[in-house]
Automatic annotation (TrEMBL):
Residues 1-22 form the signal peptide. Residues 23-142 form the NTR domain. It comes from the Eukaryota. Keywords: Disulfide bond, Metal-binding, Metalloenzyme inhibitor, Metalloprotease inhibitor, Protease inhibitor, Secreted, Signal, Zinc. SMART domains: NTR. This is NTR domain-containing protein. Zn(2+) binds at C23. GO terms for molecular function: metal ion binding; metalloendopeptidase inhibitor activity; protease binding. Disulfide bonds join C23-C91, C25-C117, C35-C142, C145-C189, C150-C158, C168-C181. It comes from Ceutorhynchus assimilis (cabbage seed weevil).
Amino acid sequence: MNTKTLSLSLALLVGSLSYCYACSCMSTHPQNYYCFADFVILARVKSFQKLETMQSLVYKVRIKKEFKISEKGQVALKSGRIHTPIDSAMCGVNMKVGTLYVISGRIESLRAHTMMCDMIKEWKNLTRRQRKGLRQMYKRGCSYCTVKRCLGWGAEKCDKGSKLKDFCKWNSNCQTNDGICLRQANGSCNWNKNRQLNNCLKNSTLSHNRLHWMNYDF
């Protein structure tokens, strides 16, 4: 094997390894981010520091609002420091200094950690319903309900036999942006009715029907 062939083989191997170890996260509804996190905060990024020895980035943040936080989280976040892997291939997060984010994560060894598979969203990009969910309504659903993606890649098994569901079926961006899954009067979990969600689902259905008939336009 000549030098050029060997170099090409090594380059392809490194490329394939990088691809194999790239970070991959399942789609998660904002309510599930909230329910399963140790902390969910609204914070502005002040600065960051690379810790090569720990292979991590440490973000210094100013916390504006605590939407959810455990006792350990209160201790860990007292310093305003959040750790994330240094490399995006390891699901490390890149946040912009001066920007206001909603950040969810977990507490390990009394340190706050976040990663790409947690909720890292600029506050300005959240919908009104998502903001309301974070402030008060997601919490109401956590004890009884969860959100399940029943269609597409990463779909979960959704039991059709149960009369009283402990989950809401998540099948569209309308439910991502405007859906809050709550326990109803009959004990079953369902999307809480609101004008934004109803209008979005209605417009989505109309668009789907138009596209369907366009496909049959001779």
